[in-house]
């Protein structure tokens, strides 16, 4: 009897050790599930922007006024942008950022086969973002960025950009995104 109880205890300990940490509750398995899990929790702020045809045409014209055709094409390829931010206000919420949220996002991006992208931003004022992309063939369907809210180093931010981008348009978005997100999160 004691050996069975000991075996059961060892088995439970191994199962607990193999579980991925990931914030409170069960870890999200997709980016959409991550947004759903946290968007209505206290301290989290979600911005959801869906690009209709009129909005994309307007963005394309604004990009052309700036003289950069690549950025205007990238902006017209955007279908939607979601931003989730969290700024901790206690030691417990700082631990959630440091140990829970980042590990949970890293785990789901790895499990869902997002490809990490190199960071090429030289503008430190825009903040450092880590990028991952989901591709189908030579087209990028989704760009995910993680980082901190500008001016709050212990914060958390997740940005999800959906669309249909070429690799060059993706490069343009990674240059444009930090400044745009900082304006959105102000």
Q: Can you tell me the residue ranges where pLDDT is under 50 for at least 5 consecutive residues? A: 5-22
Share of residues in helices = 40-55%
The biggest beta sheet is recorded as:
6 strands, antiparallel
Question: How much beta, percentage-wise?
Answer: 25-35%
Radius of gyration: 19 Å
The count of β-strands is 6
Distance separating the two termini: 62 Å
Shape: globular
Q: Helix and strand string, N-terminal first? A: HHEHHEHEEEEH
Quote the average pLDDT.
77
State the helix count.
Answer: 6
What strand order characterises the main sheet? Answer: 1-2-6-5-4-3
Specify the structural class.
alpha+beta
Provide a descriptive summary of the structure in words:
There is one protein chain. Strands 1-2-6-5-4-3 form a 6-stranded antiparallel beta sheet, with helices on both faces. The radius of gyration is 19 Å and the shape is globular. Residues 5-22 have low confidence and may be disordered. It is of the alpha+beta class. The longest helix is centred in the middle third of the chain and has 21 residues, at 91-111. The protein has 6 helices and 6 strands, in the order H-H-E-H-H-E-H-E-E-E-E-H.
